[in-house]
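Provenance

Sequences were taken from public entries as deposited. Structures were produced by running a predictor on each sequence independently, with no templates supplied. The record for Enolase from Candidatus Collierbacteria bacterium GW2011_GWA2_44_99 is shown for reference.
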Amino acid sequence: MSKIKSVYAREILDSRGNPTIETTVWSDNAHGAVASIPSGASTGRLEAYEMRDSDPNRFGGLGVLKACANVNQIISKYIVGQDPLKQNDIDQILLNTDGSANKSKLGANAILSVSQACFELGAACAEIPTFEYAAQKYGFPPASPTHLPSPIFNLINGGKHGAGNLDFQEFHVIPSSRKTFSASLEMGSELYHLLKKVLIEKKATSSVGDEGGYAPNLVSNTDAIELLVETIEASPYKLNEDLYLGLDIAASTFFQGGKYKISDVKDPMTGIQMGDFLIDLNRKYSLLSIEDPFDQEAWTDWENLFANIGKQLMIVGDDLLVTNKARLEEAIKRSACNAVLIKPNQIGTISETVAVIKLAKKNNFSVIISHRSGDTDEDFLADFAVGVGADFVKFGAPGRGERVAKYNRLLFIQEYLESLHPTS
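Predicted structure for Enolase:
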């Protein structure tokens, strides 16, 4: 039996240039694993606590030396000597050591860095790829090269992810699940570059957002959707056949005084009016998904929208659900949505994340494994998504290294599986 020999955390930078935590674990048989933890800009109010130093003299208060110290001085004492193959035991130790409801004593970033590193160490000790380890450990079907998660490409970044003036946070292009991952990646890359040409032709001033998509200055959110439609029409692909459109509304970010204020409509809208606006968008564009269409506590509005169009598309809970089993149970009871966005750092351990995924699958929810806007160049989420049999992955645009690293890993996994299951 392997045992964990050492646990060490240090401070590194994420894709936004902000500090984050990276933890390295070693076993007594010379296997090692490293995990670095992302950070979100648009966060749900019920996410697990991300510990920052709040020291204005370092990184504007965003340092994570406290979280690193919690790993090195507290958590490591309980994890050294544990069997890396016993993930549930490790995660329970982490939860017991923290003892708080939202992981505020040690920090969810500190806890997840250890949980994830130990999970990857378990795969290394088992001498199998992480995606195979995840499937075997938690009882998911083995991966197939023709049934990998479909990518959701965030080609236009708005809201807190962009530097432009769009209210909605993300504007998606989603290849048909009938296509292989490699074909989907090719499609996403081609449309990404074609969209840039369209923006230049229209003289739509644009920067690149946190997640690799373009962040143009446009008059309205509908204009951004029309840009994607125009880009697709200029490509060899057919909308609503080869690919579909999706939106991350992130409505909590522009919900004030009980109403929603967006550039498309002159006056702030009630929840009912916002729902009607989204129903009209779906009628016009046949959307595949709408994420966070309302504020994260506006349960009745979620229920009404789902009753109206829930059979036509995915209504995705991110800020609503925050990868939290109790929140998902409430959403199931209320019939509020039919898809869950999975972000391990919202909850803080691998075991808790898997429990949410299993509950979602049991209730026929679509499962989407997601990055964060402040991410790192590691590719763990690609393996994790394949291992748990996710329906989709949301890793941003096919640009910026921290996004591409995950797409490239999925590409490798497809090729690896094809080599094991040749067609001829």
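The first strand starts at residue 4 and ends at 13.
The two ends are 40 Å apart (CA to CA).
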